[in-house]
Design brief:
This protein is an all-alpha fold. 76% of the residues lie in helices and 0% in strands. It is globular. The relative contact order is 0.08. The model has no long low-confidence stretch (mean pLDDT 91).
């Protein structure tokens, strides 16, 4: 598994950025499966993020930091105020710096989508803009982020009881990425609703 086997010290800056992005994405998945492994991965993500502080655009650094606070909150609800402050202040700063960065937009969407005070409608707007902006990026490693945003668009539409729209999006994404297991599973879940 690349995330576990990669030697941070031997990676160049671009490889470190890519590994950081993988750690960010995998942290969300692992938290639901193995909390202890999730804690270790989030700590490593935080350490790597701090090491990359001067190498990342500030808006990306702030957006990643907001995600670290989000994961920490998922692990320790007793620190709600501390982590919520970290989430909101960092995503607000990221949006001030670059409200067109698709990663920043997707993180703002996550804040709206997952917050008890958020708006699914606003989340969908952020995710849709993020999807549009990701499509304009030439970086191959950003494709993973694009697919993650597309997955969340489908989930958001379903939560808004717009199941037909969610199915239509799934079909579109499966045409773009035939055989993608994530979209196949989402379509299966939507069909049984």
């Amino acid at each position: 598994h690349y995330i576990d086997s990669a030697d941070w010290g031997s990676l160049d800056t671009e490889q470190r950025k890519q590994l950081l992005n993988y750690e960010y994405g995998f942290s969300a998945d692992i938290l639901g499966v193995d909390v202890e492994k999730g804690k270790k991965l989030i700590q490593r993500l935080a350490t790597h993020l701090e090491a990359m502080k001067g190498e990342l655009p500030e808006e990306r650094y702030c957006a990643y930091l907001a995600s670290v606070y989000t994961y920490q909150l998922a692990l320790d609800k007793s620190q709600l105020m501390k982590y919520a402050k970290g989430i909101f202040s960092n995503i607000q700063r990221a949006m001030e710096l670059n409200a067109n960065d698709p990663f920043v937009l997707s993180m703002q969407g996550n804040v709206e989508f997952y917050s008890p005070f958020g708006s699914k409608k606003k989340a969908l707007e952020y995710y849709t803009k993020a999807e549009t902006n990701y499509r304009q990026l030439p970086n191959a490693h950003e494709v993973w982020n694009l697919r993650a945003v597309q997955m969340t668009i489908v989930q958001c539409l379903a939560k808004m009881n717009r199941v037909d729209d969610a199915k239509q999006r799934c079909e579109q994404y499966l045409q773009e990425e035939p055989g993608c297991l994530i979209f196949q599973q989402l379509m299966s879940d939507l069909t049984t609703q």
